[in-house]
């Protein structure tokens, strides 16, 4: 048949692959946008399930605190280690605070905390929602006339945004502490010198930008993880694959949103 | 967290012993290499491209506040990318894509009792599952890091030209990069390449409880691998600094 002959042309195969990729990407982006609109519409009516939201606050925020704090301390230490090379060669030890501070507060802090949050909370969320889909609990909710978006997604959306902003702020503090400790132990820079140079650098706008990034990352992670969770297909293997796709797409979303926030800020 | 460290170290020792005793043949490793490397190319291009753009944009914005000229910006950017962000961010991306994949695959096999079936046929699961993935991941990690660093530097160069009018001849200067930076990046890459598949496989083997267990195992793999990458980043940097 002609279709068999056409299938063997490599160029057409390439076109087919490109087309399939783009259609797949469009489906994901479209699905997430639709979910976002449904969430916003459900929030507009101010009919929010407070018990579920409180439960989510605990799960999303309190349980990721330890991981985020450790990540933040390490990221502060890393930035100081990277900057010390230039500080040592130019002798500008008073600039350590500026170099580490601006890198951590504006960029690395929100990025690493966001990625860690996406791994811890996003993957967990997708796994939970995916298991609910596979064990037909979502269909049961619909049978009871409960809107899954209002009951499941809206609380997670709100709590993830709020918690990521708070965690980013707290993480920034711990990151600066980690930087101070590293510069004291490895560079013999006094604590007071470090903190003074941080304060002298007037990093408030960077701190706010970091919080805005946290806000945007939280929204992105929430929508992505809920979308992939609710669209799981195929049993145990499907849940694993959904978590995989969700974490990958969250990472891409985090980087894309990062650019958006940076460009809009300046 | 400590139990993960203990179990992963045990798994690492077993895997290394099994590789030295009976190395897996090429036919087993190459499909994994394809899955890890070739399949992630688009993903790595997008993420590391964005990273290059953001780093150069923010770095130059910050520097312009303190110093008037951006002539050293390129040299600093390339040095930091090769030494630090290239390996680390590539590793973080590969954790999300491949680490969760390994944990999901092995977790599903545990939950559907395929591991018991392997043991019944006298095949060591570590030999069959973990060793080829470890070798494939280490090789591909180096390749992906090289590719990712190049993409980030290329996108940074384009942004510097378009937004800050820095010609590539000025920007692409290897003035502040020397071999020790390169070796530091390489050591980090190898460390990540060993740590990530071992931790992901260990989380996969500990899965229990049906589809929810697979999800939990995948989450654990991603969180522990992400944390291990960041910790190894700090460790290698600190050790390099001390010696």
Structure overview:
- The complex is a heterodimer of chains A (266) and B (243).
- By secondary structure, chain A is mainly alpha-helical.
- In chain A, helix 5 runs antiparallel to helix 10.
- The termini of chain A are far apart.
- Chain B has 243 residues and is mainly α.
- Chain B has one domain.
- The model of chain B has no long low-confidence stretch (mean pLDDT 88).
- Chains A and B meet through helix 4, helix 5 and helix 10 of A and helix 3, helix 4 and helix 9 of B.
**Distance separating the two termini of chain A:** 59 Å
**Parts with pLDDT < 50 across at least 5 consecutive residues of chain B:** none
Beta-strand portion of chain B reads under 5%
Largest interface by residue count?
Answer: A-B, 54 and 54 residues
Rg of chain B, Å, rounded: 20 Å
| Principal-axis shape of chain A | globular
Main beta-sheet annotation of chain A: none
Number of strands of chain A: 0
**Element pattern of chain A in H and E:** HHHHHHHHHH
Oligomer type = heterodimer
Distance between the ends of chain B:
29 Å
User: How many DSSP H or I helices of chain B?
Assistant: 9
* Backbone shape of chain B: elongated
The number of helices of chain A is: 10
Give start-end ranges of low-pLDDT stretches of chain A: none
Strand content of chain A: under 5%
Tell me the helix content of chain B.
over 70%
Descriptors for this entry?
heterodimer; A: mainly alpha; 87% helix; B: 243 residues; mainly alpha; 9 helices; 85% helix
């Amino acid at each position: 048949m002609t279709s068999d002959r056409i299938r063997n042309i490599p160029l057409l195969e390439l076109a087919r692959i490109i087309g399939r990729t783009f259609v797949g990407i469009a489906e994901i982006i479209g699905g997430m946008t639709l979910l976002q609109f449904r969430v916003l519409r459900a929030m507009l009516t101010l009919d929010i399930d407070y018990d579920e939201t409180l439960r989510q606050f605990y799960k999303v925020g309190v349980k990721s605190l330890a991981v985020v704090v450790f990540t933040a301390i390490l990221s502060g230490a890393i930035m100081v280690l990277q900057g010390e090379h230039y500080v040592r060669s130019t002798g500008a030890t008073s600039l350590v605070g500026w170099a580490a501070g601006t890198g951590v507060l504006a960029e690395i802090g929100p990025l690493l905390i966001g990625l860690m949050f996406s791994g811890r909370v996003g993957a967990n969320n997708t796994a939970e929602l995916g298991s609910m889909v596979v064990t037909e609990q979502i269909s049961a909710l619909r049978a009871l006339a409960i809107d899954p978006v209002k009951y499941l997604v809206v609380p997670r959306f709100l709590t993830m945004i709020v918690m990521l902003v708070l965690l980013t702020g707290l993480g920034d503090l711990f990151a600066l502490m980690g930087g101070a400790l590293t510069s004291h132990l490895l560079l013999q820079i006094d604590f007071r010198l470090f903190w003074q140079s941080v304060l002298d650098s007037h990093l408030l706008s960077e701190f706010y930008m970091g919080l805005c990034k946290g806000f945007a990352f939280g929204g992105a992670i929430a929508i992505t993880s809920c979308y992939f969770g609710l669209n799981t297909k195929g049993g145990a293997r499907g849940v694993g694959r959904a978590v995989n796709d969700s974490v990958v797409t969250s990472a891409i979303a985090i980087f894309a949103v990062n650019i958006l926030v940076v460009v809009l800020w300046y | 967290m400590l139990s993960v460290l203990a179990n992963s170290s045990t798994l690492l020792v077993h895997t290394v012993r099994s590789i030295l005793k009976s190395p897996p043949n090429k036919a087993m490793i190459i499909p994994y290499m394809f899955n890890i490397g070739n399949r992630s190319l688009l993903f790595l291009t997008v993420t590391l491209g964005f990273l290059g753009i953001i780093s150069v944009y923010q770095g130059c914005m910050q520097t312009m506040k303190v110093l008037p000229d951006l002539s050293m910006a390129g040299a600093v950017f390339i040095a930091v990318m090769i030494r630090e962000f290239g390996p680390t961010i590539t590793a973080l991306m590969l954790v999300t894509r491949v680490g969760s994949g390994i944990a999901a695959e092995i977790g599903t096999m545990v939950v559907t009792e395929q591991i018991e079936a392997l043991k019944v046929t006298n095949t060591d699961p570590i030999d069959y599952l973990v060793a080829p993935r470890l070798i494939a991941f280490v090789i591909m990690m180096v390749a992906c890091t090289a590719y990712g660093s190049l993409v980030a530097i290329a996108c940074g160069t384009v942004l510097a030209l378009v937004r800050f009018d820095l010609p590539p001849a000025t920007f692409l200067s290897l003035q502040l990069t020397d071999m020790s930076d390169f070796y530091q990046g390489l050591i980090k890459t190898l460390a990540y390449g060993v740590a990530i598949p071992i931790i992901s496989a260990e989380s996969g083997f500990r899965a229990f409880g049906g589809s929810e267990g697979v999800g939990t195992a995948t989450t654990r793999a991603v969180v522990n691998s992400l944390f291990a990458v960041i910790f190894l980043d700090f460790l290698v940097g600190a050790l390099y600094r001390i010696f």
